[in-house]
Amino acid sequence: MTAEVAPLSGSRCQAPRCMSRAGRADAKAGSSSGAMARGSARRARVPGSGVPGSRVGGRGAQGPRLGPEARVPARAEYRLPGAHPRAPGAWLPSGARTRPARLAGVGVAGEGAESPGPTGSCLVPEAGPSSAVAPARGAGPPDARRPLPAAWQHPFLNVFRHFRVDEWKRSAKQGDVAVVTDKTLKGAVYRIRGSVSAANYIQLPKNSTQSLGLTGRYLYVLFRPLPNKHFVIHLDVSTEDNQVIRVSFSNLFKEFKSTATRLQFPFVLEARTPQRDLVGLVPHGARWTFLQLDLQDILLVYLNRRYGHLKSVRLCASLLVRNLYTSDLCFEPAISGAPWAKLPVTPMPREMAFPVPKGESWHDRYVHVRFPSDSLKVPSKPMEKSGSPPEAVLLGPGPHPLPCPVASSKPVRFSVSPVVQTPSPTASSQAPLAPRPFPEVSLSQERSEASNADGPRFHSLEPWARVKASDVHTAAAGTHVLTHESTEVPVAFEDAGSCKRFLPDPILRLKGVIGFGGHSTRQALWTPDGTAVVYPCHAVIVVLLVDTGEQRFFLGHTDKVSALALDGSGSLLASAQARTPSVIRLWDFQTGRCLCVFQSPVHVVCSLSFSDSGALLCGVGKDRHGRTMVVAWGTGQVGLGGEVVVLAKAHTDFDVQAFRVTFFDETRMASCGQGSVRLWRLRGRALRSCPVDLGEHHVLQFTDLAFKQARDGCPEPSAAMLFVCSRSGHILEIDCQCMVVRHARRLLPTQTLGGPHPQKQTFSTGPGIAISSLSLSPAMCAVGSADGYLRLWPLDFSSVLLEAEHEGPVSSVCVSPDGLRVLSATSSGHLGFLDTPSRVYHMLARSHTAPVLALATEQRRGQLATVSQDRTVRIWDLATLQQLYDFTSSEEAPCTVTFHPTRPIFFCGFSSGAVRSFSLEAAEVLVEHTCHQGAITGLTATPDGRLLFSSCSRGSLAQYNCADPQWHVLRVAADMVWPDAPASPSTLAVSRDGRLLAFVGPSRHTVTVMGSASLDELLRVDIGTLDLASGRLDSAMAVCFGPAALGHLLVSTSSNRVMVLDAASGRIIRELPGVHPEPCSSLMLSEDARFLLMAAGRAVKVWDYTTQANPGPQVYIGHSEPVQAVTFSPDQQQVLSAGDAIFLWDILATTESDQRFPGPSPACEAGLGTGQLEDAASRASELPRQQVPKPSQASPPRLGICARPPEGGDGTSDTKNSGAPRTTCPASHKAFTPARASRGPHSAKGTSLPPASSEWLRLKAVVGYSGNGRANMVWRPDTGFFAYTCGRLVVVEDLHSGAQQHWPGHPAEISTLALSHSAQVLASASGRSSTTDHCQIRVWDVSGGLCQHLISHHSTTVLALAFSPDDRLLVTLGDHDGRTLALWGTATYDLVSSTRLPEPVHGVAFNPWDAGELACVGQGTVTFWLLQQRGADISLQVHREQVPETVGAGELTSLCYGAPPLLYCGTSSGQVCVWDTRAGRCFLSWEADDGGIGLLLCSSSRLVSGSSTGRLRLWAVGPVSELRCKGSGASSVFMERELVLDGAVVSASFDGSVDMGVVGTRAGTLWFISWAEGTSTRLISGHRSKVNEVVFGPGESHCATCGEDGSVRVWALASMELVIQFQVLNQSCLCLAWSPRCCGRPEQQRLAAGYGDGSLRIFSVSRTAMELKMHPHPVALTTVTFSTDGQTVLSGDKDGLVAVSHSRTGMTFRVLSDHQGAAISTICVTRKECEDLGVEGTDLWLAASGDQRVSVWASDWLRNRCELVDWLSFPMPATTETQGHLPPSLAAFCPWDGALLMYVGPGFNKEVIIYDLSQKQVVEKIPLPFFAMSLSLSPGTRLLALGFAECMLRLVDCATGTAQDFAGHNNAVHLCRFTPSARLLFTAACNEILVWEVSGR
Prior knowledge:
This protein is mainly β.
């Protein structure tokens, strides 16, 4: 939104304000109340442009004026000389005496074991930063101060004894710490108690600058929490790169929290008691706990860091602690002593063991907590990603561990979370579930249930337990942070391998935020480059690009952000939150990574200010006594892995409203407040201030300050000037050096010529206009005032330069660094900027000023409506997140809102009981009804828009007729709805088909379901069960309907459950227990019933609704206040949540089988049909990716792509192994898997290949790309040549026109291609066929498309081809079995040299800078070949180099040459290593991916890597050449871009600058890549798996295909471009039919698709939606077809049943079981009057089954008549198989003679049988060379098409008996179909589709 800028000159004249539909509009609300629609920013005025305005001058001038004030001399001079803060020093320990270790037990060190060397008994100083491959701000020496190898710590270390805790010399104690005797352990223990945990503790080591240096993987804590108290355990753990991580465990914590430097785990102890306030406290009788912490896995799983050593430990009150131990061994606490030495477990050392009386069990007396679980499949090393923020939880595809340890008194197989709990007695009765694997508690032997009178009762956890855990995510644009909350989830302890994984993690990603401010509206900053604005939106920090409107987010705060600061370079961002005590976060502004989190001594920070370098941060606020405190922190070491240091603190009795660090001296600051302007100085460790003598201005209330900047940007401190402003309109100009007020000016309101009253009303009192903020540039001063104006003045304040009026008081202004834009914020929640060159005001953000109560979405226009406590109703554009309208009412508050489903109208309910409809076109009130007496609590409409329902706080329910323009009230029923129900979008619910209405009422304990039209009560469900926790009856809170096909009604209750009811019977179908500690006020189920959305406190929870074994929800935080409403966007691709602000989340979804390649598949776009459960439609024209993701942040695929079932199956999907870890096999390892070897088309007698001049068929188009090849695509941008392979064909395609050329000839599938550097020659290689002994290599002339040479040498598949730089040589590489390297001379293509390699080689490449050098990569070696030519002979000189161990395990899988002399190699483990080819050494490596690198391409300074995970990454490698001489440098390589495709990358071709290219994936897709635009556009795409059917539309403009991948795709027949895609999840589409022309109008064309689960779906082609889903079969369908009138659908299944169903209603009215026992292979229908056959009917149809039987029927479905005409049985020998498959039985009516029937199938002879129905006999047999796999008859000509398993297609002319055979497919031709016009023939083999043009005959 922009506001016009008007000039100011001459006399004062108020210009009329602009009005617009999207801005300001009047809403007439009748006599009762009025509503006003307000506009955007008001007009801005510019002096000198000809429009009357205000004038600046003396007393008689009109407009705002600055009155001259007396200069106030300074009474004292105060100099601020520079000072440099002292850097903190490091403590270096001295040596210590050592003594030998004493051994006891079985390999156990005795007490007092110490180091045999100097490092054993000293405290190691904390290590500094070290170099790493990932980019960093700075790097130190590789081994700087790292703890030495600690063999002295093995096998375990007694920490208390080693560091002599009892002496308190090397440890510290604080508060109430004493040694007491424990009766249970019969020994001395330390008791730590006190009301404040932070004031009572034991700390090791004594000083924070020291380090324990303990390297043991496991830390054992032997402790007992004190009853009814809290305790805290803090561990400071150092990573290998010397980053210190604080790991904390406490029962004080309510949720898991994670940052880059902190992990906070809740240790929940539950005693089943109705007293809720005791939850979290230690129950009475708490037992001694053996806490075993795996420090290595904690850092690896939660922060993706390598564990270095344990730095320090702090044990805080209240607990008893016996000792601490560290070890690399995993001890079993219940097993101790030598008798257990032979067990496959490590017994507990006697020293660590708890005493167990004879005859008792260890688990009855003690508790064992092991965290994390041993069952977690944790990777062996961190998955480092360049540029990846530490907050990103990079767990890979494995199971996600629960975030807190569980203590259990029973040995169980898998642990649960630190939750110490007493499980419910009914825990074992829960239904078996299959969640993700969970952490393990114990490996002890199973035993029966037992109890202990001394402690809480623990019930047996076998075989089930109840887990308190759920995933909480903060999903930003580039990161997501995994945190956790408590929620009960059943856990299965057996068959963990079959556990089904939950949805993609995360399933939501924050896309946009609507809102501004929260704590205040004064925090808004420009970035140093002036391209973006940084501002808070409650608990979220938003970075908004002003030119594009894109947002990125900083998430992590749990309360409203109260202050922001950005350093001068734009690298550090500081933010503080308002909750007491205040927490401050420091962020890496460029990456979004949280560098550190620390607690401020100031309780509420109101202001932050960075020094220009970012080394100093100052904060101001109030302490707990209400005194103003100023704190200075040193932040210079944060980016280097250091910590924030408090440099100084100071208290002051003066008020501070604004505080700034000077830009010219980091030790000087200034502040202003009530009656005070003070200058500050940091010197040493002290902050001192000096007041400026303000003279008569000492009573002013100052609001803001700014330092004057010199035009050259480098002012001298002596010339520094400070400007301060006040609420009385004063602006003081202060000389900081002389402490003198140089000038004082005042902003006064405009006076009229004849009166004393101001012409303009202000927003505050007093004679001056209150100034709230000012900002300076070298040329002007921007002033924001309470009268709503932003004014720009020159620095001498002689005249107003620009003026912009806002709708509320301006609270903050900020001039951009270039001085051309002025940012302004208002207290009414508006944020925008004034562009001074164009004099245009741009609105950036608007927001509600109070919490949002409800929201609603509109589908057609993509709009969102919200109502808020600020008494406004606002309409937003979902695409741009910009406000379109806002309606306000001063007399009453809006409560709820909903859109009309079809009209541009929305309805709103108010607190007065009124319900009004508003027109979005006219922006006015249409109709008002006041039939309610209380505030409106619910408002909803039926999906067809015919009925509207409303409820009020007094219990009445009203029904309206929306079909009537006046939408009259039809019925009002009293005492129907629960009177005290809060206003919520889930108060009323209408079913998806509009037939049912549900609500809570008439009491809170009942849910009523009514007929929506009649309001007849159909069902009343009493959910008032007793809640044992609260002692009260359960009550319903919200209701929601599922899809109509499910018939589910969801009810959330006050006992934190969600009950799923049958909407017809009220039966409880399932229950989601413990969804949240607080009741759920809003819930929504997606249209496909996959996702259940809940508003849960301040979080949004997403459940996998389709999984019966609920593994727990994913929880997303970001809101600082309770979420009031959640909903899905109209297209179901996004989620909206509203509370303090409005959040828009993208839904990220994938399928179980596709999770290895998290890239996008064909994008789902079409709407979902009624009753659709698992279906989604998509348009292929949609680009799958519009933006390049942030580096190392994979972007999951979009919603609606289904899992791919195994080929050859019946369509069912096996999900047992869906949660298995993703394979790390590189793309090259399985780059080429040739198809099953088939006999060639010429291997049998009787084949007839036609001459080229008289072929009946000509190949027109190929649909598909061979994704199992390698480097089988080439593209040359300068010539436009583009070629790829599909089976045995080389396809050359014009990317502009889509025209194709096809180069046949290969006898087997083509494995790879290579294009010469001159682009004149193309080489292609194929695998070995059954008819040849060697693989074939063909050399093609590109210009003519002819094969010039045919060569062969390799006996196995050719893996790679490459031309030398001068095109004189061609190198060919055999696969892993052949291991042959061959060189060919391109002059004659004679073999020049050949050698057999000692090990498998994965890639070969010529040196582009030296034609005499090539390189190969394989198993751990790089082989360099030097070509030496002597005359005509060429010899090879070999030099092999081993891969360094630092590169890691794995094979080298890919290579490419870079700038000389560099060679880049990729490994199977995701590493990229760089070699110096001259020196023969590897000098650099980095982890480029977490999957194998199968492809590398390089220009001089850019490298492209493609991996088996589908990630395509662009790296900047320019500085690598310099590192070859200088050594390793971590910051030399960084990732510029990343794209995630739909499968492993197998081929790629880019232009010379690597800006654009074409990439092929294993999924069979070719993508066009543009790095500049960050897009990937699908060029070629076919079915991923077998194509099962091809059908054609009546007009022959489109065709449709279906496949095993579950998709139904509609193609434009002329161009073969994908138009529509319908996708069904987790099923195969096995058959397909297109409705005939006579079934209705062309726009009513429909598709019938049969699936592996026995379902049949009807899709509307015109509406791209599913119309109907029926289930006529219990098993997989095999064939489907329409009747000739299109009203009936005939379907057959694999059990031999034929079902006849209505295509409109879905009702199955006849089932034929005559073929039962054999699968129905085909059903064919033709229109024929059947009187000549002796029966009545309009349709003649047949069914053929796999037992060689064909039945012929005559039917008239309108009369429900069906009569058998004939029954045919064909004999078959005992064994009749072709290529391992039983040939199908196929039959079809002859189009040119309706009395004839043609049959092919297994039999004694290979033939086509022609049967005459009239004569009842076989009239002709046509011999065939093979058994037919497919059959099709041409409707126009007497042609018969047959496909064979021998990869051959035969065309038979039935008139002449002649035949022609055609080759081209690589697999069995299992499908062939003529188009209705007989001009085209489609054939399919596996997933290849060939389109043939039939010549005119």
